[in-house]
Amino acid sequence: MSDIQQYLFEVDKNKSAAKDVAQNSARKLESKELKLINLITDLEPYINAKDDAARRSNSIGYLADVLDAVSPRVLSGQERRLLVDFILNRLESDTEGIGSSARALLALERLGKWDSTLAQRVLQTFVDHANPLKQFKLQSERYAILQLIDLLMAKYRTALQSLHDSDANLLPSFIALFEGEKDPRNLMIVFSVLQVPLAEWDVHAYAQDLFDAVFNYFPITFKPPPDDPYGITAQDLKDRLKGCIAASGECAPYAFPALLDKLDSTAMNTKRDVLHTIQACVVSYEPKTVNLYSVTLWDALKFEILAAQEEDLVNEALKALALIATAFSTGMDGPLTAYLRPIVKECNEHLEDAPTTQSRAAGRILHAVSSAAPVVADRIVKGILPTLFTLFKSSESIAKRRGLIEVLNEILKAYIDMHASGDALILEGLKSHSSDALEVMLRATVSAPKAEVSFRLASLNGLVQLTAIPKLLSDEEVERTVDAVTDMVLHEQTAGHGDIRTEAIAALTEMAHTVPDTVRNKAIPAMMVDLPDSPSDDTSYKSTLEALARLSTETEIFDTIVVRLKSRLSAARHHQAPTSYQHALLLALLYAFTYGSPLQEDGAVRSSYFGDYAEPLLALIKEAAPGSRDSAETEIVGRITNILLRSQTPHFQSTVYRTSLQRLVDEQRTKGESVQSLAPLSLHYFAALRPEVVEPTDVHNLLKTLGSLLLDGANSDASTSVLLRHITLLVNKFLTPKTMQASLQDAGLDVTPLLAANPTQQQIHISLAITKALILLGKTSALTSTYLHVLLDLLPAASTQTAQAFATLLAPDALLSKVNHCTVSPLHKQRTFALLTPSLLAALKTAEPSRKQPYLLALAGILQHIPYTVLQPSLLELVPSLLQVLDLPTSQSTVQDVKPPILAILEAALLHDPDTLSEHASSLITRLLTCASPPLKSKSSAPKAPNTTTVTTPGSQPPPSVNSPAVRAKALQCLTLLPTHLKREVVLPFRRQIIRKLVPSLDDSKRSVRTEAVKCRGAWMGMEEEAAE
Predict the structure, then answer these.
(1) What total of structural domains would you count in the chain?
(2) Residue 530: in which H helix or E strand, if any?
């Protein structure tokens, strides 16, 4: 059996096997076992089978597959030319298998480039004998032809354009070739192919035919099928179609009217497509072409803005208007004037009625058009501002004046946007009105009634924008503006409604960015004068310090601010100012270094700041007697030290450690009282240091001291928290994983002995702190697992406080971070979840109901810090325990802390895995209703004493609810999700019960709870409406 016979035998049953046969023939051609003439001779009886169209088609398919598999240089140029002639001659008399013919030609072109004449003949043959393509029913055949034509357009563009120039009948036939195509893959190529003649050929005589050929597909409503292997989206088709419509200005007489007609559609997607296409046309067509339709476009587009339907449509219409203005902005004075004249006239008319929706829309139009180019903005200003200021001066209505200032602000914002993009501004028109604008805004900001907040804020915003436009105001005018805003920050005393000091501080901060010298020379001195050495009023200085701290975000005035704050702090200490004032000054310094813009050196905060600010503060702390040290001040100084030290080089840190701060270590090593008083400072200091800087002996000694202090049990809760954090930091950061257990044993902090027999609360907290350090470290798996199981062994007899403390294992701590050179394993939460959860769930299954509370509290404490994606695979096992957490007696404050995160987990489960909760619907609804119930208002509803409550098991009566507002609101949010996320048949039986029990929540004393109750009732009431429909 010959290759062609074998191919024909296989092709309809097994295309892969048929392909292999063709590839085998190609290998024979390459090895000279088969000559091309013999292959064609063998093919002849089948390719000329007059009574069998399928055989003729498959025969051409065989030839195409062979040519596709042949390597370059196997066929000579003459042989390739003969094959092309053979295929084209055959097409003139028989189009059966035309798709395979196209594939064969594609393969031949790949084997060697054609000359111009041959490329022209190929296109002409298909245009003459395959027209229209829709006569071929198979998409694959049409696709192969389109691929061939697309190749010709891409590689033989000049030759095809020459063919068009010499044959006036080519283009009409070429357009008709694609008529009626509907397949998305084919249309992607059709639009690309038609874009070439539209963009490059002289199509004046057939512009309407070309436009109609593509616009027939507008708007695209294609929706790709699920799992579409080709990945063609509606947006892909829209972009190709848009490119065709915008390719030639010859289409403008047909495109703009047709697009504007479609703009009247009620379909929002159609409107979007129209606006995007108009934008593309304005950008692509020549300005003189756009000029013919600019006023018509304005009349249509303004309606989309003035009668806004959706915000994104407004934005697209504004963008189109701006693009038209941009097209006329370079050397087209007449068209620009003609375009702007109706815009200015219309906007001036709307300003007369300000403030209205139309006047605000007019402001947006003016902003968009002015942003097009400086010359456009100058024309707008000359046409709008005279009318605007005339209307402002003639009106006594504050509302009208506010509306006019808002429009002015829109124009000013356009200038700022252009300056930010690097355009050279034209200020001629604006400068002639700048004095009027400044006076109007200053008067409104300073003198308007305090209750007119929106008016004053609009004016304040205008002042910021006036100062942001370079060279618009004189130096004196800028100083007046800064003085006025500074005065608002310092001296406005209005409380509640009318207080705009916060906005004034924000405005001054923005001015610091644009006119830093003026703010430095005028505002900061005025603020420092307002800051006393020793204030008599605790609140008089707060807004001033807030302003100074926020101004520190500007790099150019940062140093000035921190120097002045440091000087004022020294004066306050000298005059023995109240401690609260000194704390406020320190907090301002801390804010400046944390959120401000200190100067940088090699990506780190400039090292000189440490010597200038941290070291003097540290000296004051260390010189104070241990009993007189202020813990709050020590903590603030520690945080400032941390910020300034942590990013420094190891060399710099080593120098600091060996010299100025070695005394701190020495003092901590020898004096227990000093350790306790310096603990907040020491914590932040050691957090800043790199591990390689600190001496191991210092770490071991400090660990021993900290452990001894904690085991004494004579510390306040705040001191205990700091000491525990300190231990966690030291263990995580400075102890070597290989010698971890030996180091802990040497310091007397090995967890196993600490918890060996009847451990105290202090020993338990130390054990949790050490285990937390190991969990974050992630390099001592065996030891971590041992410690966790030792801790779990405490739960059967654990107190509520101990069980609740398990939450600290995964609780976030800002100091335990990579910024502070700690080791934080990215999988530490996943590992901890995998280690603890199975044991806790197993214990809950066997524990007596009266002893479940410690396990539930420990489980809830762990889960509240676990991402939902981590616990999601274990949700089925977790749900019963989560529901039992909601049953915990609510009279204990500890339970109030664990319920909201558990409810958040259930909420996430309802959103992402509702089927997991379906079988627990009854239990879930009962508990959610209990959690959502507000406190009973009668005296008899007082909660029971904590020692009389027990864990409620499923099926028993839940305890009286005294849930916090956070618990009640979150429970109602979960209830709201049930009707839409669980199956209807599951939740419908509970509908009446839930609606009835929501009544007390609708009268809850907290507004946030009442709001959620209304939403919840609406969701459940909606089920009845759905049933009625």
Answers:
(1) 2
(2) helix 524-530
From the list 222, 214, 208, 205, the residue with the least C-alpha distance to 243 is 214
**pLDDT tens profile 778-833:** 999 999 999 999 999 999 988 888 999 999 999 999 999 999 999 999 999 999 99
Per the listing, tokens 């400086």 go with 374
Nearest-angstrom CA–CA distance, 439 and 484: 12
Distance CA 463, CA 440 (A): 10
755 and 791, same structural domain? yes
Q: Are 81 and 118 in contact (CB under 8 A)?
A: yes
Asked whether the beta carbons of 724 and 769 are under 8 A apart, the reply is yes
Among the candidates 866, 885, 913, a domain finishes at 866
Distance, first Cα to last Cα, the chain:
69
Please tell me whether residue 604 adopts helix, strand or coil conformation.
strand
Note whether 852 and 890 are same-domain residues: no
**Tokens at 393, concatenated:** 């001066």
| 3-state SS, residue 778 | coil
Q: What is the pLDDT of residues 689-731, one digit of tens each?
A: 999 999 898 899 889 988 988 888 777 788 899 999 999 999 9
Question: pLDDT for 940-971, tens place per residue?
Answer: 444 444 443 344 444 444 444 478 899 999 99
**Which residues are 50's β-sheet partners?**
none
H helix runs in 328-397, sequence order: 333-351, 357-370, 374-394
Surface-to-core class of residue 330, CB atoms within 10 Å of its CB (0-12 exposed, 13-18 middle, 19+ buried): exposed
Please name every residue paired with 604 in a beta bridge, in sequence order, or none if there are none: 601
Q: Helix, strand, coil: what percent of the chain each, to 5?
A: 75, 0, 25
| 984 contacts 920 by C-beta, under 8 angstroms | no
List the structure tokens of 821: 């050179």
- The most distant pair of C-alpha atoms in the chain lies apart, rounded to whole Å, by 115
Q: 239: closest CA among 188, 284, 314, 193?
A: 188
User: Strand, helix or coil at 681?
Assistant: helix
d(CA 895, CA 892): 6
**Pair of tokens at residue 421:** 């993009």
Same domain for 857 and 985? no
895 and 849 fall within a common domain = no
Q: Is residue 260 part of a domain?
A: no
Distance CA 691, CA 873 (A): 38
pLDDT at res. 665: 55
Q: Map residue 901 onto helix, strand or coil.
A: helix
Per the structure, the complete domain to which residue 928 belongs is given by: 871-934+963-1022
The span from the CA of 149 to the CA of 1000, in Å, is: 73
Residue 763: half-sphere exposure toward Cβ, Cα within 13 Å: 16
Residues 828 and 844 in one domain: yes
Q: Which two tokens stand for residue 966?
A: 């956070």
- CA 273 to each of CA 193, 317, 325, 354, 1012: distance values in angstroms, whole numbers, following the listed order: 21, 11, 21, 32, 39
Beta bridge partners of 605: 600
> Which of 169, 255, 251 has the alpha carbon at shortest distance from 207?
251
881, 1015: one domain: yes
**Does 881 share its domain with 1000?**
yes
Q: Counting Cβ atoms within 10 Å, is residue 547 exposed (0-12), middle (13-18) or buried (19+)?
A: buried
> Exposure pattern of 205-231 as b/e (b: 16+ CB <10 Å)?
ebbeebbebbbebbbbebeeeeeeeee
Q: What H or E segment, with its residue span, contains residue 601?
A: strand 600-601
